[in-house]
Amino acid sequence: MDLDRHLDEAVRTVEQRRYRRLLTAGRLPLLYGVGVLLAAFSLFPFLFGDGGLFAGSNSIMRYREWPVGTLFTTVALAAGLAAYFRAHTLWQQEHRLKTLNTWLLTRQEPARVAATTIAMSAVLGVGMVLAPLALALILGLIVALGWWQFLLSLLLVALCSLLGGVVGACVSFAGHNLVRRRLLYPALLVLAAVAVGLWLRIETVENGWKRSWEEHPSRMVRAVSLLTPAPAMFGVSAPEWWAKQPARDLGWRAPSWAFALAYGAFLLGVSGYGTLLAASGYLRLANEPDREVDKPREVREEAGQEFYWKGFKNPVWTRDIRTRLRSRETAEFIFFASIAVAAGAFVPLLLTARDLSDPLQTARAARHVFFWLTMTLVALVSLIAPGLTAEVVVQERESGTLEMLIGTPMRPRDILIGKLLGAICVLLLLISPSLPLFGLCYLFHGASEGQVLSVYLLLIVTLTVSAFIGLAQSAINVRSGAAKFWAYAVTLVFVACPGGPFMLAATAAAPQAGLRQALMGNLGVSVVVGVFLLFGLGLMWGNASEQLEYSEF
User: Fold this and answer.
1) Is the pTM above the cut of 0.90?
2) How many CB atoms lie within 10 A of CB 182?
3) Of 132, 149, 137, which Cα lies nearest the Cα of 240?
4) Mind listing the pLDDT tens digit for each residue in 265-275?
């Protein structure tokens, strides 16, 4: 068959068996599907509803097909995310276990191996979202979608999953300097050129060059959003919305199915080029096996007297702070967190910059900045905190130092507390750039003292719980991939559940007073969620302590 001719049979067979066990177990796909549903119907109304950042003048929620489009879009993004993590984790795990040399000694063709891992990652991405995908199909039947709408939606979901696997493999190979820059940079320049071309097209259609400069950022946002799956998926589900919003922006009278096919061809082209990059990276590794070996960094000490901080009473806490603050990853985290925080604050400000001459409009803009800054920080903390702690115990176990830690007079809970406090100290640095921005919101009457204090209290609780979940899963699970998956899955359920941090953040920072009053009626749900959360955290704490004390190393 053509599948056997283009894919590596050994890798495909192993991955099929692994996915069969994973998907038939039911627990992982069910949990992931619940997280997709929670994200779809809690986050998307804030983004695409009336007054949302990407709503424009014609909100998708004004059409009866919006639940179908929202669910299909979230399913496509979730499938791509699952495929990305699978492809990235596969190569990272093989690199960490030093088993890539075994692959290279076989007679398997490098290009077929790389393509097979990407294809099987895409299959896993689709398999992980089967439950919400089935719900989206049922909703489509209820709102009477046409056969072509179902077909194009499924096609885009599959292509998004394929693109996620491609990006995961390329990121893994690029991280080890196996992808040649002369092949990578032109592709990034082409994507940037496409975004700029869409922006110039929107400017030309709306005659933006003769209008106020404050309107340019909103057109840039709309141009970049056209590169995401959201407009294509929404356009397929609601063709009337497509004709009144994106098609009008582009000055394109073609129907939504034509844009969906063009966007599908774009995804397929990007995926094909990314597959070639991944195959070239693996082929380069086959030709130069020494690149797979990690070279130790040189330790350089400057002459002169140095004074060292003695640290805390808990030596694990002290060591984690010293090692994390010296690492390059912490500096990169703080840099990108600052960019994300600045974007969450200044994008709404730029979109409303033309109204800042009026004090009332300035206060209104400050309220929107406060809202989006709060939601950005909650999302950022929920994304970074589990990943920061999901490997701390796994790395100790793999390096053989966990047994020495357990052999010290410290109890398992002391080790866990030290690891947790070290991560919390770094996470507090990540949210520190938001202090002056919140101060400006308060200065321009965009938020009260109580709102600012409640938001920071919520951020501290969210980052502490998210970091604890990642730490507990790192102690419970032996493998890094399983620890990361469970850390992000449990954190997603905690953050996006009704009454969770996202809802509490919206309650504290909503721009309209009426919306805040309406959301405050759901605070009773938060109390119930908090009780169940404390019970679940207690179980994870006991399980993690038991694994550290009695597990074999």
Assistant:
1) no
2) 7
3) 149
4) 999 998 888 88
